[in-house]
C-alpha cells in the first residue's frame, strides 16, 4: 500500500467520569459510562468495522476496570488520559515530579488491566506545560495528542491563556521539541494534533452545531487531498448518556468569575444539546461521510507505525 495516498481517519475517545449534565466528576456517571455509554460507542464501531483509540483516566481504570477490558477484544488501542480529570490536577499546573507520578500510575493500571503496552497520551482538558514532553519521555510514552492546532475557542475552557499556543502549532503530525509540545523539534515524542478549524472537530461541536461540523468535514476532506493530514476526531462515551432525571446545578470549579462564566456556565449550557440517543445518528453520519470517501480508520498508534513515526516492532 502506498501510504502517501492513504486517507486516514483517526477516531479517538476520552473516557472519564465527567457528567456533562451536572458539569462535575461523579462516580455514578462512571457507572453509566460502563453500563450504557461504552456499549453504545463500541456497537457503533463494530457495525462500521473501524478501530479506534481510547484515552482512559487512571481513575476510570482503577474503579471500573471492565470499561478498559471491553475494548481490547475489538482490537482498539488502550491509551492514557492521565490519572485524574480534576481541574486542580491538570498537567499545566502539576510540577514535573507529579506529572511523572500521574503518568506512571495511569500507564501501569492500564497495562495491567489490558495486557497492552500503553504508549499514547492525551492530557485532560488538553492542558500541558513545558515539563510534559520530558515527563512523557521519562515514563515510556511515545505519542501525544493534546495539541489542537488552529483551535480558537480556548477561552471557553480551563487553561485558556496557555492554549493560545494552539494558534501557531504545526497542523501536520511532528516530532516535538523536548521542552515544548507546541513546536517541532528533535524530541522523542510524536505529536498527532487533534483536528480543528476555528472550533474543535469533536463530539461537542457535532452535537451543538451540526451545521458547522458539516462545513468542517468538507474543508477537512479537501485539506486531506492536498497534504494528507489525518482527520483526528474526539468524542466521549458520556455524550451518549442522558442524566436529565436529576436536578441540574452547574458546579463551580474555579474562583475566577470570568473563567466560571465562560468555562462553567456558558460552556455547560451549550454542551447539553443532543445528549444521549440523539447523538447516535449524528455520529454515525460523521463516520459514514469518511467511509464513503475511502478513508482508512485505524488507531493513533498504528497510524504512527504505518507512516514511519514509530518502528514496526511497536505494534
Structure description:
- This protein has helices at 27-48, 58-63, 66-72, 96-114, 132-138, 203-208, 210-227, 257-270, 279-292, 300-306; strands spanning 8-15, 18-19, 24-25, 53-56, 77-80, 120-121, 143-144, 174-177, 180-184, 190-191, 196-197, 199-200, 231-235, 296-297.
- It has 315 residues and is an alpha/beta fold.
- The chain has one domain (8-314): TIM Barrel (Alpha-Beta Barrel), CATH 3.20.20.370.
- Helix 4 (96-114) packs across helix 5.
- The chain is globular and about 50 Å long.
- The mean pLDDT is 90.
Chain-wise SSE layout:
Elements: E1 8-15, E2 18-19, E3 24-25, H1 27-48, E4 53-56, H2 58-63, H3 66-72, E5 77-80, H4 96-114, E6 120-121, H5 132-138, E7 143-144, E8 174-177, E9 180-184, E10 190-191, E11 196-197, E12 199-200, H6 203-208, H7 210-227, E13 231-235, H8 257-270, H9 279-292, E14 296-297, H10 300-306
Parallel strand pairs: 1-4, 1-13, 1-14, 4-5, 6-7, 7-10
Antiparallel strand pairs: 2-3, 8-9, 8-10, 11-12
Helix pairs in contact: 4-5, 7-9
Question: Could you write a compact summary of the structure shown?
Answer:
The protein has 315 residues and is α/β, with parallel strands linked by helices. Helix content is 38%, strand content 15%. The chain has a single domain (8-314), classed as TIM Barrel, CATH 3.20.20.
Number of domains: 1
CATH superfamily: Glycoside hydrolase/deacetylase
Radius of gyration: 18 Å
Query: What summary fits the major beta sheet?
Result: 5 strands, parallel
What integer is the average pLDDT? 90
Order of helices and strands, N to C? EEEHEHHEHEHEEEEEEHHEHHEH
Structural class: alpha/beta
Amino acid at each position: 500500500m502506498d501510504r502517501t495516498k492513504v486517507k486516514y481517519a483517526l477516531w479517538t475517545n476520552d473516557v472519564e467520569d465527567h457528567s456533562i449534565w451536572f458539569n462535575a466528576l461523579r462516580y455514578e456517571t462512571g457507572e453509566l459510562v460502563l453500563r450504557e455509554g461504552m456499549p453504545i460507542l463500541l456497537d457503533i464501531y463494530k457495525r462500521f468495522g473501524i478501530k479506534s483509540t481510547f484515552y482512559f483516566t487512571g481513575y476510570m481504570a482503577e474503579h471500573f476496570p471492565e470499561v478498559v477490558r471491553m475494548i481490547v477484544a475489538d482490537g482498539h488501542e488502550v491509551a492514557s488520559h492521565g490519572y485524574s480529570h480534576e481541574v486542580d490536577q491538570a498537567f499545566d499546573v502539576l510540577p514535573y515530579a507529579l506529572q511523572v507520578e500521574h503518568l506512571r500510575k495511569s500507564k501501569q493500571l492500564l497495562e495491567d488491566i489490558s495486557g497492552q503496552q500503553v504508549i499514547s497520551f492525551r492530557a485532560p482538558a488538553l492542558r500541558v506545560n513545558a515539563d510534559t514532553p520530558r515527563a512523557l519521555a521519562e515514563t515510556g510514552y511515545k505519542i501525544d495528542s493534546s495539541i489542537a492546532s488552529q483551535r480558537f475557542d480556548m477561552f471557553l475552557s480551563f487553561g485558556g491563556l496557555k492554549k493560545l499556543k494552539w494558534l501557531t502549532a504545526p497542523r501536520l503530525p511532528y516530532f516535538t521539541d523536548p521542552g515544548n509540545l507546541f513546536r517541532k523539534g528533535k524530541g522523542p515524542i510524536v505529536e498527532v494534533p487533534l483536528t480543528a478549524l476555528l472550533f474543535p472537530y469533536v463530539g461537542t461541536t457535532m452535537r451543538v452545531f451540526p451545521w458547522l461540523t458539516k462545513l468542517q468535514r468538507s474543508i477537512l476532506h479537501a485539506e486531506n487531498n492536498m497534504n494528507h493530514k489525518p482527520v483526528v476526531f474526539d468524542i466521549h462515551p458520556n455524550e451518549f448518556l442522558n442524566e436529565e432525571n436529576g436536578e441540574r446545578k452547574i458546579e463551580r470549579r474555579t474562583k475566577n468569575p470570568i473563567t466560571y462564566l465562560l468555562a462553567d456556565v456558558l460552556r455547560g449550557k451549550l454542551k447539553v444539546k443532543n445528549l444521549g440517543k440523539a447523538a447516535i445518528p449524528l455520529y454515525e453520519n460523521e463516520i459514514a461521510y469518511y467511509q464513503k470517501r475511502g478513508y482508512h480508520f485505524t488507531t493513533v498508534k498504528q497510524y504512527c507505525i504505518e507512516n514511519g513515526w514509530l518502528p514496526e516492532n511497536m505494534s
